[in-house]
Structures
1.
Amino acid sequence: MKPLADLVRPTELDEVCGQEHILGKNKILDRIIKSGHISNMIFYGPPGTGKTTVANIIAKKAGKRFYKLNATNASLKDIQDITKELDTFLGMNGVVLYLDEIQNFNKKQQQSLLEYIEDGRITLIASTTENPYFYIFKAILSRSTIFEFKPVGEKDIKKALDRAITLRSKEYNEICIKVTNEAKEYLAAYCNGDVRKALNGLEIALNSTKPNDDKEIVIDLEVVKDSTQSKVIAFDMDGTLLNSNKQISKKTQEAIEKYKELGAEIEEFSLDIADYALATYYIIAPAEASSNLGRFDGIRYGYRTPNYTNLKELFKNSRSEGFGSEVKRRIILGTYVLSSGYYDAYYKKAQQVRTLVKQEFQKAFEKYDVILTPTSPIVAFDIGTKSSNPMEMYLSDICTVPVNIAGVPAISIPCGVDSNNMPIGMQLIGNYFDEETILNAAYTYEQATNFRSKYKPNL
């Protein structure tokens, strides 16, 4: 059997759940598609909101040859293979290219499409979960219409669930599927606007429930709650590193036990790709710092040195005196990874790994609500004590940088102190656009432990 998400994937616009603001009758995207004059488009929004589905429907309506690439693993050669076909019989009417995760294409790759977009031989439909104005080449943005896809409402998710139940029932022959209204309402609220997540929850419930004597599979509220249990997960991204501080490990385990007492389901979990997040972060962050800090030259922005006799000295001395050693270190590293010959080897690869980290988090949050980790493998150190060893200082970020790489929300709260009365932090990570869940989880723990009244700093 096909996965439910594939089984119910719409093939016509009127089957798409949600997005009434752009797909509703006589709305802008509805008018464009019905006119048959398909222009370049960029779809922006969270996962599970129908971006890929709508792109497939548009390609079908356009009547052109359709290509689909994911920028995470696509290369310049993949683009060249498509552009070569434009000069053949197969590409005589032009092609539609759907480019998923376009933010992972570097400037050179995006520029390679520009000539064909301008002359109309390639109609680009791109999708991204990131802000397109930050990650997409301006020349492509200026030639495209941006459409924002919003989290799907509960009413529309229930329609998708009903359609999934109907289609799956046809595959079960003599077995009848019955899903209570309470179960559907719970799934619609649980998925936080992500249709795929709701369908996955229903599929787990169906696959784990045996027919009764009347040949009925009954899915009630208890079954879907069991299939979509809210969990707090402790995962150890680097066991050796985290276990090197037994006090942090002990306090983290105590926090986990407290959540158990409060009724949370606990499951140990490992996010393997996060092992690469630290290296990825310290390629991407310095690259962005190098680019953004280029404007601080003593003329347009920032500190201006009084010690100069010419323009070159003004630039040099302003930046030398105005930036500290760590900032200089990051500028040098960032300039290196962005330089010709090293861009693809470092920066592009780091962006690809970043997408893999995001995908791992998305996969995890299909099953879990909250991920719990220590905030750092060490307690706070005295100012300046790690300055002579930058690598040791960077390693203290190993638990938090996967969050920055993936762009998911997280909160750090104290869960105890060590033998020197230094606070130990616990990090709660939530799904995209689901800050409410981690704030509630943090507040619940804070109220149950009353940390503030038990531990006070020595001033």
2.
Amino acid sequence: MKSIIVRMNRPRLFPRFRTWVVLVLFALAGATVTAHGAEWVETEGARLRMVLGQDAGDGRVRAMLDIDLKPGWKTYWREPGESGIPPTITVRPAASAKVAFEFPAPEHVSDPYGGFTGYAEPVRLPVMLPSGASEAEVFLGVCQQVCIPVSASFSFSGDNAPSPLHAAMVDQAFEALPSAPTEHLHVKTIERSADGQALTVETAADAAQASPRLFLAPLTESGHVFGLPELVEAKDGQAIFSVPILRRPDETTALPRFSATLVQGRASIRHDIGVE
């Protein structure tokens, strides 16, 4: 079985309102822990492990980061807001294509600082690793009354064959991801409001079945900051959301394309779409 050597960095604690840019300026005190296979590695607020699955047959291996949050602790989605730390992964040797986590449908997590988008329960983040990767460094934040940036480096060695249990766990993590848009659940359009202070997002979603929820993540860095989507109208199989534009770099910078996750009941879809 492939072994994973994990180097954990344990940083200082900071209030939630600090931005991650400030957090990473502080020196991190390193501690080294070795895990064989997919053993858990303990850190403040959570325990983590990297679980390897089957070879995908295209030069990549299916895998997942398993984040087992302790009660009362939270972690972030791909777009956590101004002061959050989205989970990221860097592999070595460097891959020719970008390597990034995929995310199951999140929730809006309330806290004394206004809340953020993420997870308040244990979560598994699937990822496609290059078959030749020898090391993967992950960076994420876990929060309670304070936010803790966690850095871990996983070194891979040995044969690539996963156990049947681990392969099944990774497959389940991929199956839990939002599906492609469907006829009855998709994002129709994103437009700028008449006053320019918000985005209006029109979706296909039957609010009579369950109240739909929308989560937006910019696909490119534009300097804009967006608030949480608010459902403002729902009728005749469609739901309309308003998304405040909290900050913009200037009037000439174009709005980004978005990865939109639309959730209704147990169903969720991901739809990448630009602003009309």
